[in-house]
Amino acid sequence: MGLALIGLSLEELQREAGFCGFKPFVARQLADWLFVKRASSFDEMTNLSKSAREILKKNYHIGREAPAGEAESSDGTRKYLFKVCTPLGGSLVEESAIESVAIPDGDRATLCVSSQAGCRMNCKFCMTGRGGFHGQISAADIINQFLSVKEAESLTNAVFMGMGEPLDNYDSVCKAIEILTAPWGFGWSPKRITVSSIGVIPALKRYLDEQKCHLAISLHNPFGEERVQMMPVEKAYPIKDVVELIRRYDWSGQRRVSFEYTMFAGWNDDKRHADALIRLLKGLECRVNLIRFHAIPDFKYGTSSQTVMEAFRDRLNANGITCTIRASRGEDIFAACGLLAGEMRRTEVNYLHNLENSKYYD
Question: How many CB atoms neighbour CB 214 within 10 A?
C-alpha cells in the first residue's frame, strides 16, 4: 500500500517526489491537495499529469479513512471510532481502534484527539488505561482524525487529550503538530492546540523546548504518596519535579500551562489538598481546571459534589490560583474525560463499549 501521504512533512514529500522522478514543485502541489484542498483521492489532483497520478496510486495512499462508527450526545458532542493498523513486534500487525471527540461550543469547535491505541500509563481511574496499550499510531493516524470527522471544515481548536499519553508517542505527535501549524499544511496558530501529559519528564522537556503549543498537565493530587496510588507514573516522574521543570519556562507570553484536576469524593477534594495544591503552584502563571469524575465500573471512588467542587475552586481563587470547573460534555455517549476505550470486533465494523446505553451506528 505504501506510505500514507497525510502523515508526511513537506521535506518528506519532497523526498518522495524525488524518488518518483517528479519536479521539486510537485511536493508543494501535493501538500496543497492533501492539507488545503483536502483531497481524498489522487484522481482529484487535476494539476498533476495522469502519469504522475498513476505513479502515486501505485506507490502511496492518501491515508484518509472514514470513521468506523460514531455516536452523538444530547449536548451535541460527537464521538468517532477509527480503525488503525498498529505494528507490534516487527512484522506483526494488530487491528486496533482509537476514538476522537468533536465538541461544539458556540463559534468554537474543538477536536479531542487520540495519540496512541490504548495507553501504557495505567492510571486507575481511566478506561483507556484499564484497556492496556495496543501500540503507537502514526502521524497519518492523527491527521486523519482532523480530516475525516464531519466537523473537519469548522474545527477551530485541538486538544491532545484523547486515548494515550501524547508525550509517550512524541515523534508522531510532533510531526502532526508540524503539519497542523505549517503554512504548507493546515496553517493553524500553535495557540489553537493544547497537548496534555501526565508528566513524562524527558519528553516534556523536549516539548517545552521545541513546541509553542499550550500544555495541560494531569495532576489530580498534590501529594506524591497519594498520587502514586492512582497514577504509577508518579514513581518515575514525581509531580513536584514536573512542576519544577515547568517553572523554568516563561509563561507570560502566548503559550499557556494549565493543570487538570479530577475531583474524587473523599480522596483529593478537601481543604488539605487545596492548600497543598496552592503551595505546589504558588507563583506559577497557570490555570487549574477542576474536572467532574465520570464513574467507571469497579472503582471505589465517586465524584465530588458540586458544593465541594465550588468550595475547592473558591479556595484556590482566593489564594491567587486561577481555577475553574470544566463543564462535562458527552458523558451519555462515554466521550467525557477518562471514558474512551476504543474497542472493536475483529469480524465486524461495529463499536463495542463496556458500559451500557452507548448507541453506535455505521
Answer: 20
Query: For the chain, what percentages of helix, strand and coil (3-state, to nearest 5) are there?
Result: 35, 20, 40
Same domain, 210 and 346: yes
- Interaxial angle between packed helices 170-181 and 201-210, expressed in degrees from 0 to 180 and rounded to the nearest 10: 20
On whether the CB atoms of residues 287 and 258 are closer than 8 A, the answer is: yes
User: Is the separation of the CB atoms in 42 and 56 below 8 Å?
Assistant: yes
53 and 76 in a single domain? The answer is: no
Do 7 and 135 share a structural domain?
A: no
**pTM of the full predicted structure?**
0.89
Buried b / exposed e along 149-173 (16+ C-beta atoms within 10 A): bebeeebebbbbbbbbbbbbbbebb
Q: According to the model, what pLDDT value does residue 356 have? A: 34
Indicate which residues carry an active-site annotation: 99, 337
Statement to judge: residues 20 and 165 lie in one domain: no
- Shared-domain flag, residues 306 and 195: yes
Strands 69-72 and 78-87: antiparallel
- Predicted confidence at residue 1, as pLDDT, reads 64
Per-residue CA distances from 74 to 107, 159, 332 (Å): 18, 21, 7
Read off the C-alpha cell for 133.
496499550
Question: Which range of residues forms the domain containing residue 123?
Answer: 69-352
Residue stretches of the chain with pLDDT short of 50: 89-92, 330, 333-336, 338-340, 344-362
β-pairing, 116-118 vs 133-136, is: antiparallel
CATH of the domain at 193: 3.20.20.70
122 lies in the same domain as 256: yes
pLDDT per position as a tens digit, 88-115: 544 445 668 899 999 998 899 999 999 9
